[in-house]
Amino acid sequence: MLKFYFHPSPNPMKTALLLEELQTPFELIAVDTFKGEQHQPEFLKINPNAKVPAIDDDGVVVFDSHAILFYLAAKHGRFVPATAKEHAQMLSWLQFVATGLSPFSGQAVHFLHHAPEALPYARNRYLKEVERHYRVLDNRLAQSKYLAGDDYSIADMALWGWANFAGYILGEKGLTDYPNVKRVVDEISARPAAARAQALKEKLTLKAGFDEETRRALFPQNAEIAA
């Protein structure tokens, strides 16, 4: 059975959504990143980059959320457009989220909520880049039902992973400035698979508090500064 290494944060949620859409059986394995379990030797054998998600599909190990999305969609022949044109669009937007929205969102969260000191330049830099990426996505979705075209694909699942947490970066207004993105995110969130993906965290007992242990686990490179 496929093993799914999981913590309920944006990137693992992309994989959770696809697994639930596919309704393929899997064993849920918690990796409590707030406790630093991602740095344990047994997990580093799965992902040497010490990040979730990762999967072990009967001996085939895949890490990085977008690699997993593409691997599973290709294996099952679902949520990947069949035409060359839409397939190319799917790849382009999947990578746009992978190399743009995802890392800029992660950095925005860090500097807005977790940096040891307020750095106005960094906060502005990453917040404005997140907003710019959402504008690009919103313009695309004003012209197209989904990112790849007429059909729901793994590119939309990748968008949902971070956009579902947009309020943590953008504040109470959330996605209201990006109505076309909000339309797609709300539609995906209403799907039964998304509800099942969200419910996965209820099956686990994970650390919730963000304390010094968690800071060391998530940002181990900062220990050099403290020293």
TrEMBL record:
Belongs to the GST superfamily. InterPro entries: Glutathione-S-Trfase_C-like, Glutathione-S-Trfase_C_sf, Glutathione_S-Trfase, Glutathione_S-Trfase_N, GST_C, Thioredoxin-like_sf. Residues 1-80 form the GST N-terminal domain. Residues 83-210 form the GST C-terminal domain. Pfam families: GST_C, GST_N. It comes from Paraburkholderia saeva. Its EC number is 1.8.4.-. This is Disulfide-bond oxidoreductase YfcG. One of its GO terms (molecular function) is oxidoreductase activity. Keywords: Oxidoreductase.
